[in-house]
């Protein structure tokens, strides 16, 4: 299994990151058609990484958490992914949105931001597709500090949400991913 982690230095602009990040999510198949069972074998998960790119759910206060979506192509076919197809996902209100537990009510969560500026400008460029081979894993994400509107994450309980749909060969599959985490 091949794993590719794409991470970016804080100094790079979010538009460079989004060229790769946006295009991950709406897929179309390569020359051979994928059947519905194979489409169901393309998995997405939501992961959190610390500054050393180690997956975790508990972080020290001040950690610049990276919020990422991991795609695993468990199908028997290679798939193509395009920048132009996926850009709109980052304009979804609930994509990689972070919530913090409201300590006053001790139950409700309030939205506090995203690791990218929203709404996002989608450049009209025609990049060639990148191939995600069978059994390959891609992890693409953005650190909390990439959005200059964000304050550092303070002590507390949080969750990050990622709602999106993927259409492949006219078939749509939806994901509603939620991952809870804590800042100590």
Structure description:
- With 184 residues, the protein is mainly beta.
- 10% of the residues lie in helices and 41% in strands.
- It has 3 helices and 12 strands; from the N terminus they run βαβαββββαββββββ.
- The protein has helices at 14-23, 36-39, 83-86, and strands at 3-6, 27-29, 42-49, 58-59, 66-73, 79-81, 95-101, 109-113, 130-132, 137-143, 156-168, 171-183.
- The termini are far apart.
- Residues 1-31 have low confidence and may be disordered.
Roughly what is the average pLDDT, rounded to an integer?
78
| Helical run tally | 3
Task: Give the H and E element order.
Answer: EHEHEEEEHEEEEEE
Main β-sheet, spatial strand arrangement: 4-12-11-7-8
Count all strands and give the number: 12
Per-chain topology:
Layout: E1 3-6, H1 14-23, E2 27-29, H2 36-39, E3 42-49, E4 58-59, E5 66-73, E6 79-81, H3 83-86, E7 95-101, E8 109-113, E9 130-132, E10 137-143, E11 156-168, E12 171-183
Parallel strand pairs: 1-10, 4-12
Antiparallel strand pairs: 2-6, 3-5, 5-10, 6-9, 7-8, 7-11, 11-12
């Amino acid at each position: 299994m091949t794993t590719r982690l794409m991470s970016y230095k804080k100094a790079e602009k979010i538009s460079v990151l989004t060229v790769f990040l946006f295009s991950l999510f709406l897929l179309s198949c390569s020359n051979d058609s994928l059947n519905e069972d194979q489409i169901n074998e393309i998995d997405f998960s939501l992961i959190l990484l610390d500054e050393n790119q180690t997956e975790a759910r508990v972080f020290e206060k001040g950690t610049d958490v990276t919020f990422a979506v991991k795609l695993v192509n468990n199908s028997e076919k290679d798939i193509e992914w395009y920048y132009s197809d996926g850009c709109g996902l980052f304009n979804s209100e609930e994509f990689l949105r972070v919530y913090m537990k409201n300590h006053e009510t001790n139950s409700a969560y309030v939205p506090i931001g995203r690791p990218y500026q929203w709404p996002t400008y989608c450049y009209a460029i025609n990049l060639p597709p990148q191939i995600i081979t069978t059994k390959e894993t891609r992890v693409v994400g953005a650190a909390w500090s990439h959005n200059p509107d964000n304050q550092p994450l303070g002590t507390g309980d949080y969750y990050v949400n990622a709602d999106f749909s993927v259409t492949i060969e006219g078939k749509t599959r939806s994901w509603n991913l939620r991952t809870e985490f804590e800042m100590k």
